[in-house]
Amino acid sequence: MLMDITNTRPSTLQKKEALLDVACELFLTKGYAAVSIDEVVARVSQSKTNVYSWFGGKRELFMACVRRMLQVWVEHLRHDYSDMAPQEALYGLGKKILELVLSERAVILHRLVIAESVDFPEVAQAWMEAGPVQSYQLIAELLDRFQHRGDFREVNSLSGAKFFHDLLLGDMQLQIMLGIRQPPTEAEIERHLERVLDLFITGYQTLRNQ
């Protein structure tokens, strides 16, 4: 009796995902310039034709990796904060953002994007749209909910979101990106969040509606 092997072959989507998995890891570990399409396809036993057909080339493959990694990370930030008080909800979301953005992989990716952005501005735009802009939107949605409940006075929620995001990361992220400090400990994150929330909840009420 012959076995039906039609379902054992990887689908196009599976092959594409496998190629992306390998490409993303290579870019993170070796940097953009040191990775070749030949190396990527050799790792997954595929052809260069697949890369050109699915992505267009090495630049587009790198942008696909940036978008993919950020999409996964942003999904990690999503949570139902609807029943929480503002301070509790912002603390929870802020902690997730700090842990994510200051993680080793996120810092490596951010440095890679900055390094390539001079000659490759499209990747910086892709990173901005898939990462920070999505974070702003999540925070703004939370602030809108607080305003509708009457917890905060009504101001531009996107302005408030950027204000919170900047307070949250600011100098700490810059120092880590420059390699002049280590990522914060759990205790340091908690102390930092308490200071940020005190400043934000006070300052948010003074933002003009623009």
From TrEMBL:
Entry-linked Pfam families: TetR_C_7, TetR_N
DNA-binding region per UniProt: 36-55
Keyword match DNA-binding: yes
Keyword terms: DNA-binding
GO molecular function: DNA-binding transcription factor activity; transcription cis-regulatory region binding
Domain of life (superkingdom): Bacteria
Boundaries of every HTH tetR-type domain copy: 13-73
Protein name (Swiss-Prot/TrEMBL): HTH tetR-type domain-containing protein
